[in-house]
Amino acid sequence: MTKQQSHGPKVYVVQKPHRLVAPESETGPAVWAPSMDLSPAYEFGEVINILPCDADTYYPAGLHEDLLKGLAQFREGTDYLLTVGDLLACTIAVGILARRQKTVDVLKWNSKRRKYVALTLFAEEQEHEHEHERRA
């Protein structure tokens, strides 16, 4: 990153959901438009999108490379993973982090509270619990 880096928590979004919107005219191109409001995630830190909306998700090796690069600065115990977007990409992202850290902090949408809740996934076997809610 060449820009001034923030040292606070970051929320790594695997792939911000988009939908293809029909062109406004018969000759105009279709465009990608966001299909999900991720603004509640800003409560947890700076939001960083890893994959573009038009990433080739049918090429797992390329996805793995792109996700490795995008998650290179992910900090255990500080940053969060928001698993939205392509399911295969989300699975690969969790796998990458689980291989290099003992825990992976993720955000999960709680529809009753209308906000994200932080959960910790354990990559190593724990004696009592496999996951617990982290208080934000």
Series of H and E elements? EEEEHEHEEE
Count of the domains: 1
Mean pLDDT: 86
Distance between the termini: 27 Å
Share of residues in helices: 10-25%
Shape: globular
Number of helices: 2
Strand order in the sheet with the most strands:
4-1-5-6-7-8
The SS-based structural class is alpha/beta
Beta strand %:
25-35%
Quaternary structure of the protein = single chain
Itemize the secondary structure elements and their pairings.
Layout: E1 10-15, E2 18-21, E3 31-34, E4 46-51, H1 60-70, E5 80-82, H2 87-100, E6 103-110, E7 115-122, E8 131-134
Parallel strand pairs: 1-4, 1-5, 5-6
Antiparallel strand pairs: 2-3, 6-7, 7-8
Helix pairs in contact: 1-2
Give structural notes.
The protein is an alpha/beta fold. It has one domain. Helices cover 18% and strands 32% of the residues. The chain has helices at residues 60-70, 87-100, and strands at residues 10-15, 18-21, 31-34, 46-51, 80-82, 103-110, 115-122, 131-134. A 6-stranded mixed β-sheet has the order 4-1-5-6-7-8, with helices on one face. A two-stranded antiparallel ribbon has the order 2-3. The longest helix has 14 residues, at 87-100. The model has no long low-confidence stretch (mean pLDDT 86).
